[in-house]
Each structure stands twice: as structure tokens, then as C-alpha cells.
């Protein structure tokens, strides 16, 4: 059974419903007339050249789509979609050492690349592109000769060359200590796991020339040295990043990995039970095509437990490779976040205005403040949070107007191999909130479904659901 692939295929509509844009090096950065682009802290970007110059410089932009302004649309109700793409007034990274310093300090980066300026063996009829990402996870690995290389990588979902199918795409930027940079990608079909990316030779580039990396010039960085400080930072909607020094941790480690780090896009805080603490995860496909799920649990004792599971998603008999290790806050793991102020948005209008104006938003759900009207579901003692960056406003100008956003995390599962934990939420103009929890997996009978069934929780904006934006 295609454990991961069918999960991806089944979950894709929920992801696309958020209005997610596909950003990777092999797709052009462009928007049509029905997109409004604003630069955070600035004004509207009204031309293609304005947008291109902003993203090339690592600036923060947000794109807002309004279906009512389209000449033709198959959308059933008036819809606005918004996509926030991070950053700031930018400082460029000029060397490998600068890049490592920025990462270890906890700075959040924007990666841009111009593939047309890199060396490659592609035939002339292939159309090249430039692109980038502000989401990434990274690893520092031994190069086998006493040195090290840095790997920045990120996944996206994209369309397959086969009509009606999708691919799980992974882009990697591999930076050597000399600044020589290699870009490669994989595009695994989510039904067959065949790699559809036709040019594995990749692109040979140089850091600071055709691959540029930026961080915010004026960001002060906060460091959180205890469980209580980390938990408070999550509850305040801060943009946390975890940096792990594997050499200062204990346990079994992925071969060759010296350090690693990632942004925390979504988290769950359990107050009680055997797994009490803050949970988050990340997943990606590695160079061998195995799926790697990394699960993190920060306990109240300040120890971060990390379990990395790698398995072949098309072989149901595959025995996963599992590495498990532990790191203490301030020694093996560091949690950081930009120190800008956050403000809680307490009305529907303020949430929509914040999103459409380009403010970086985050959401937090306190399930003890939400109610299942059927009385069958009790999630008290559980909180969850995520970036609130890919949202849709539905039914604009109608009595049913509401804003929708969602987040998910991948987890290993003893029965299904992999499971998806999802949280979707809608907010109406009266500040009423509906939360749709999900734990999607194959059960013992091989049936795909949601352990929460059709459960819907009722909350209120400002109580069960809190949304924070930049002050």
C-alpha cells in the first residue's frame, strides 16, 4: 500500500483550498492582474518589474487575489486569497561563514537563485527560471575529508506532467565552505513515487552571485533558555526557530549530520499525559527517495527528544530506519525568534485587514475554550498553533462571509506508517469560530480516514482562537 503517497494525494485538496502558491526554483515568480502585491512596510507593487525586483532583493511581500476582479472565474462564491512571503529590509550573506553565523544566531532567511546565470548541462530548448523560498530546513554534514557542507532544502506540492496528478517536490541548495553552490531537485509523483524531475545534473552556482541569501537588517534576536520561556514564546505568537548541535546531544544520530535547524511552522502543547510537552515535526524526501519524518518533543525538564524515521513509501514491507537522540536547551538545542512586538487581533475585520496588508500572522487554538456540540470530543489541556499565512476569505460581501486557514504536521504511525495531524478553522464576521481537527491515516483494515470523524468544535475569536500580528 502506498502509505505516504495516498496520504499526500488525499490531503492535497485541503492544502490547495488555502490558496497556497507554489514557490520553487523551477516555476516563474509571476502574478496576473487579479493579484495585488504589497511590500510589507511599503506600498503597492503595481508592475511585474516591481514585484521581481522586490523578491530578488529578499524583501517581504504579500499577494492578495480577488476572484471578483477576474474576467472569467469558476469560483462558486466571491473569494479572496492571501499568501505571505516573508521578509524585510535585507542584509545579504556573502560567504559560507556569514551564512553559518546567521543560522546559528537564529536569523530567518530568504533564499533566491537565478538558475539562468548558473552552469548547467540542460539543452537550449529548456526554459530556465529563477525563484526562492523563505521556508527551509537545513543540515550541516561532513564532506568526508575533514570539511563540511551546508544543505538548505524545502518541499512543495506542484502539478505533475500527467494531467490530474501531483508531485511532491524537494529543492536543495548545497553550499560548500568555498561558496560554491549546487542546486538540485526531485519531483516525486504522489501516486507512484516515480521521480519526474528530468535533469538530476542540477545547477552549479556561487553564493553571493547567482544564489543570494538575505536576512533582516534590523532584527534583534531573542533566545529562550528554558521550557517556560519557549512555551511563553509560542503562546505569544512568536516565530520560533530551532537550531540543534548534534555533537552536544546524546543518542543515535543520522550518519554524517553535525548540526540542523528549521522554522517551527506548527506546534501542539499537551499539558498532561505520558507525552506532555510541546510537539512539532517536519518531513521531507531525502536524496535516496525515502521519506524522512522528524518528530520533536520538548519536555518540561528542558530536554528536546528527537526521533527521525526514514522509510520507503512504496514498499509496505520496508523496515524504517529510526534515529533517536536528546538535546538540552542551551547546550544541544537553541530556540530563537525575531524580537519584534506582536499584538492580538480581536475582531474579524482586524484579521482580514492584517492579512491583506501583509502583516505576518500566527494563530493559537486553546481547545479547552472550544466546545463539541455533540459532547463526544474533549480536547481540554491541548493547545496548538501555526503560522497563519495561507488564508482564504470566502463569500465576500455575503451573509456567509468568513475567513479560512489551516495547518498540518506529519507524524510516524505504527499502523499507517505516516499520519497527518490537521487543524482547519473558519472565522465569521461575528467572530464565531469553527475548528475542524483531523488525524488522517490508514487504520488496521487499510481504510483511509480521520480519527476525529466529522467532529467540529465551536469557539470564539479571542478565546478559543487567538490570532497575533506584527505591532
Strand content: over 45%
SS field, number of helical segments: 5
- Overall 3D form: globular
| Poorly predicted ranges | 1-40, 84-88
Helix content percent band: 10-25%
End-to-end separation in angstroms reads 48 Å
Q: State the oligomer.
A: single chain
Could you give a short account of the major beta sheet?
Answer: 10 strands, antiparallel
How many strand elements? Answer: 33
Question: How many structural domains in the coordinates?
Answer: 3
SS class: mainly beta
Instruction: Compute the average pLDDT.
Output: 81
Radius of gyration: 22 Å
Q: What is the fold's blueprint, element by element?
A:
Blueprint lengths: L2 H14 L18 E5 L4 E2 L2 H9 L4 E6 L12 E7 L4 E3 L3 H9 L4 E6 L15 E4 L3 E6 L5 E12 L6 E11 L3 E10 L13 E4 L4 E6 L4 E4 L2 H9 L5 E5 L4 E2 L5 E7 L2 E5 L6 E9 L5 E8 L4 E9 L9 E8 L4 E6 L3 E4 L2 H9 L5 E5 L15 E6 L2 E5 L7 E12 L3 E12 L3 E11 L5 E3 L6 E4 L4 E6 L1
Keywords: Signal
Account of the protein in words:
- This protein is mainly beta.
- 11% of the residues lie in helices and 45% in strands.
- It contains five helices and 33 strands.
- Strands 1, 2, 3, 4, 27, 28, 29, 30, 31 and 32 form a ten-stranded antiparallel beta sheet that branches. The protein has a ten-stranded antiparallel beta sheet with strand order 16-22-21-20-19-18-26-25-33-24, with helices on both faces.
- It starts with a helix and ends with a strand.
- Residues 1-40 and 84-88 have low confidence and may be disordered.
Amino acid at each position: 500500500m502506498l502509505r505516504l503517497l495516498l496520504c499526500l494525494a488525499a490531503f492535497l485538496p485541503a492544502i490547495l483550498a488555502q490558496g497556497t502558491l507554489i514557490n520553487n526554483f523551477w516555476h516563474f515568480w509571476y502574478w496576473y492582474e487579479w493579484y495585488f502585491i504589497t511590500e510589507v512596510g511599503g506600498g503597492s507593487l503595481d508592475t511585474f518589474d516591481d514585484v521581481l525586483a522586490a523578491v530578488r532583493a529578499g524583501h517581504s511581500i504579500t499577494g492578495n487575489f480577488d476572484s471578483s476582479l477576474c474576467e472569467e472565474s469558476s469560483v462558486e462564491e466571491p473569494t479572496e486569497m492571501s499568501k505571505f512571503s516573508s521578509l524585510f529590509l535585507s542584509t545579504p550573506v556573502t560567504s559560507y561563514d556569514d551564512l553559518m553565523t546567521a543560522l546559528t544566531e537564529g536569523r530567518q532567511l530568504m533564499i533566491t537563485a537565478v538558475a539562468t546565470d548558473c552552469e548547467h548541462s540542460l539543452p537550449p530548448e529548456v526554459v530556465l527560471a529563477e525563484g526562492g523560498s523563505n521556508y527551509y530546513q537545513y543540515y550541516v554534514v561532513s564532506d568526508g575529508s575533514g570539511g563540511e557542507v551546508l544543505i538548505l532544502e524545502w518541499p512543495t506540492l506542484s502539478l505533475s506532467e500527467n494531467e490530474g496528478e501531483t508531485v511532491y517536490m524537494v529543492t536543495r541548495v548545497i553550499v560548500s565552505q568555498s561558496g560554491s553552490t549546487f542546486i538540485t531537485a526531485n519531483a516525486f509523483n504522489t501516486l507512484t513515487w516515480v521521480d519526474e524531475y528530468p535533469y538530476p545534473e542540477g545547477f552549479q552556482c556561487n553564493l553571493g552571485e547567482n544564489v543570494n541569501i538575505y536576512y533582516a537588517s534590523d532584527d534583534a534576536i531573542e533566545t529562550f533558555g528554558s521550557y517556560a520561556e519557549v512555551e511563553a514564546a509560542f503562546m505569544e505568537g512568536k516565530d520560533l526557530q530551532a537550531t540543534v548541535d548534534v555533537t552536544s546531544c546524546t543518542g543515535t544520530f543520522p550518519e554524517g549530520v553535525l548540526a540542523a535547524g528549521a522554522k517551527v511552522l506548527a506546534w501542539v502543547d499537551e499539558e498532561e499525559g505520558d507525552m506532555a510537552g510541546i510537539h512539532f515535526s517536519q518531513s521531507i524526501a531525502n536524496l535516496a527517495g525515502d521519506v524522512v519524518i522528524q518528530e520533536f518533543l520538548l519536555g518540561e525538564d528542558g530536554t528536546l527528544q528527537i526521533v527521525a524515521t526514514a522509510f520507503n513509501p512504496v514498499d509496505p514491507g520496508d523496515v524504517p530506519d529510526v534515529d533517536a537522540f536528546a538535546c538540552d536547551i542551551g547546550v544541544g538545542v537553541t530556540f530563537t525568534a525575531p524580537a519584534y512586538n506582536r499584538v492580538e487581533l480581536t475582531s474579524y475585520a482586524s484579521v482580514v485587514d492584517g492579512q491583506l496588508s501583509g502583516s505576518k500572522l500566527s494563530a493559537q487554538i486553546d481547545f479547552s475554550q472550544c466546545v463539541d456540540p455533540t459532547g463526544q470530543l474533549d480536547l481540554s489541556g491541548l493547545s496548538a498553533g501555526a503560522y497563519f499565512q495561507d488564508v482564504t476569505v470566502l463569500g465576500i460581501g455575503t451573509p456567509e462571509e468568513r475567513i479560512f486557514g489551516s495547518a498540518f504536521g506529519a507524524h510516524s504511525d505504527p499502523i499507517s506508517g505516516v499520519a497527518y495531524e490537521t487543524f482547519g478553522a473558519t472565522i465569521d464576521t461575528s467572530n464565531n469560530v469553527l475548528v475542524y481537527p483531523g488525524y488522517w491515516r490508514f487504520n488496521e483494515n487499510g481504510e483511509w480516514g480521520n480519527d476525529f470523524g466529522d467532529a467540529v468544535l465551536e469557539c470564539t475569536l479571542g478565546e478559543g482562537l487567538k490570532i497575533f500580528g506584527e505591532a
